[in-house]
Amino acid sequence: MKTNIFFTADHHFGHANIIKFSERPFESIEQMNEELIKRWNEKIGKDDTVYHLGDVSLGKPDFTKEILNQLNGKIHLIKGNHEYAALRVPDRFEWIKDYHELYVEDEDVNLGKQKITLLHYAMRTWNGSHHGTWQLYGHSHGTLPDDELSLSIDVGVDCHNFYPVSYAEIKEIMKRKRWTPPFAPRD
């Protein structure tokens, strides 16, 4: 059975002020939480792999556990700056890290694997960035302008209609970038 890989960040479950701060189109915190759970589960199956790049919840640990138990998928957590509650339910995550370099098998990529750097925060350069490694981040809630010359994107829910983003969707976004290897031979 083939599993899919998804990326997301910045749900801020249980955080009433995020509706105002990020101008989210929800009437209440309850509506936001319900809609975020619904959109997550519309895309992610129970056996799919999810990399959450931080800021899962600002609710209390019991509330956060209740939310996490409603979400499909095998969730890997890259810690954000708001993980007090998520860190108290570690058994819901496959692992919890500050940073991760992921390799995704992809026959379209040189050597058959796409390297992806995962961190809560955006970076201007990262390990392998000059060789085509992607960087996925959250934290900024869509406030950073996209750099079409950089293989880096914000996977936070505020940037993707409150849905997680699949590897295939990320790949299509990266294909549209105008990045070129800085050390490529010149004509």
TrEMBL record:
UniProt cross-references to Pfam families, sorted A to Z: Metallophos_2
InterPro entries registered for this protein in UniProt: Calcineurin-like_PHP_lpxH, Metallo-depent_PP-like
Residue span, Calcineurin-like phosphoesterase domain: 33-141
Domain of life: Bacteria
Family that this chain belongs to: Belongs to the metallophosphoesterase superfamily. YfcE family.
Protein name as annotated: Phosphoesterase
Species in which this protein is naturally found: Epilithonimonas lactis
